[in-house]
Design a protein that fits this description.
heterodimer, A: mainly alpha, B: about 160 residues, alpha/beta
């Protein structure tokens, strides 16, 4: 019992160390890949970012809308419905925007990356590349990692902006909050620092989500079952890590 | 070929939207009331108590923002707060005996400096100091004063009888 516990802990430690080394290797080759194989990276930006626009925009609209609705109906009780903009803006820009975008990204793009790489491994494409003296790290892993890491801040910005407009739509157009006070109060209350915090979070989450997706795919058990499990693990682990990191970054910055 | 075109257009649209959104967030959601002026002059004022006045708080006259607080320091000799603020150079005819007070925007709003014009013929310039100042009203002190004011009054009534 005790022995098993220690073994589990050692296994976790080993996985953690291997993942960190993998991350360092990704970072080490990233600049040269970005310069020499730019078209591969650009394709992955399309794959991870451009194809995620629809889900990000629709989710942003409705998340913003429901925030606006809740903020309005609760603030109205205190005759403070003019503060709807502040509440929605702070929530979206600092917390909800980066986090939900990262979760959606893990579901939409992270799974795609993990299963794609996993299937490449299962069908021996990665080994074949190594045989041809082509480094799969540089051809497969890094472009996908960079594509995801570049896409995330842009996706977060789109999500947050659409969310603010969605809340504006509900609170101002439907509920009759004054459009001037919605934006004015938001602008007065929000510091540029708050916006930078959101952008910083999205950059961190982009690195984390892409790393985990590529790592899971790259290290999956090369069977049909293994690929499936890697896909699931990508979503689960990314969600947990992103939520924990979000708390830590907020606690650190606040 | 068709495939490449769709991909390129999709990526272009995505990156463009992303950059526009970033631009929107960094410029449109913060401080539109930010005071922007190419030319400013610096004025200082001493206060007994600045309350919760912060750097970048607006300086306004007749309700119009004409400047911004740049620094709040503590003078260890006179034990006062020294507030430094800049005023747009377009407003260079403010009498130098104007008085500065720390006011609160709304009931729970942030604090700002309000200037009330004086009647002097000389004007504020770079480096000048405002001597007539009125500290921030601290709610706790106000309540304290109210309570204190109530008790001596009642005690004197008793002594009178």
């Amino acid at each position: 019992m005790f022995r098993e516990l220690i073994e589990t802990f050692l296994r976790f430690l080993r996985t953690f160390g291997a993942m960190f080394l993998f991350f360092l290797r990704l970072l080490q080759y990233s600049p040269s890949v970005l310069v020499k194989r730019f078209s591969l990276v650009a394709y992955q930006v399309y794959n991870a970012g451009a194809l995620s626009i629809i889900i990000i925009m629709v989710s942003g609209l409705f998340v913003g809308g429901v925030l606006g609705l809740q903020a309005f109906s609760n603030l109205e009780r205190f005759n403070a419905e003019d503060a709807t903009g502040i509440l929605v803006g702070f929530a979206l820009i600092k917390e909800i925007g980066p986090v939900i975008t990262a979760l959606l990204f893990a579901g939409r793009a992270g799974t795609a990356l993990a299963s794609e790489i996993g299937l490449m491994k299962a069908t021996d494409q990665l080994s074949a590349m190594e045989m041809m003296a082509v480094d799969p790290m540089r051809y497969v892993a890094i472009p996908r990692f960079l594509g995801g890491a570049i896409s995330m801040p842009l996706l977060t910005a789109i999500f947050t902006t659409i969310g603010l407009l969605g809340a504006d739509l509900v609170a101002v157009e439907l509920m009759g909050v004054d459009v001037g006070s919605y934006w004015q109060q938001l602008q007065n209350a929000l510091d540029p620092k708050d916006v930078y915090e959101g952008i910083f979070k999205s950059v961190v989450f982009g690195l984390v989500a892409s790393l985990l997706a590529v790592w899971e795919g790259y290290n999956c058990v090369p069977t049909a079952e293994g690929v499936g499990r890697a896909t699931t693990r990508t979503v689960v682990i990314t969600a947990i890590v992103v939520l924990v990191f979000n708390f830590m970054i907020t606690a650190w910055i606040i | 070929m068709q495939q490449t075109r769709t991909m390129e257009m999709g990526t272009g649209l995505f990156v463009l939207l992303g950059i526009l959104a970033l631009f929107f967030l960094t410029t449109q959601t913060t401080g539109s009331t930010d005071f922007e002026a190419a030319d400013t002059y610096t004025v200082t004022a001493r206060f007994q108590n600045v309350g919760s006045l912060k750097k970048r708080a607006p300086v306004s006259m007749a309700g119009v923002t004409i400047g911004r607080v740049t620094d709040i320091a503590f003078d260890p000799k006179s034990l006062e707060a020294v507030v430094t603020f800049v005023i747009d150079s377009r407003y260079n005819e403010i009498p130098d005996d104007s008085d500065a007070s720390i006011l609160t925007a709304g009931l729970l709003g942030s604090q700002y400096i309000g200037l009330q014009p004086g009647g002097s013929e000389t004007y504020l310039g770079d480096g000048s100091e405002i001597y007539m100042t009125q500290s921030a009203v601290i709610l706790e002190n106000l309540i304290g004063k109210f309570l204190l004011h109530g008790s001596p009054g009642s005690s004197s009534d008793e002594s009178g009888q």
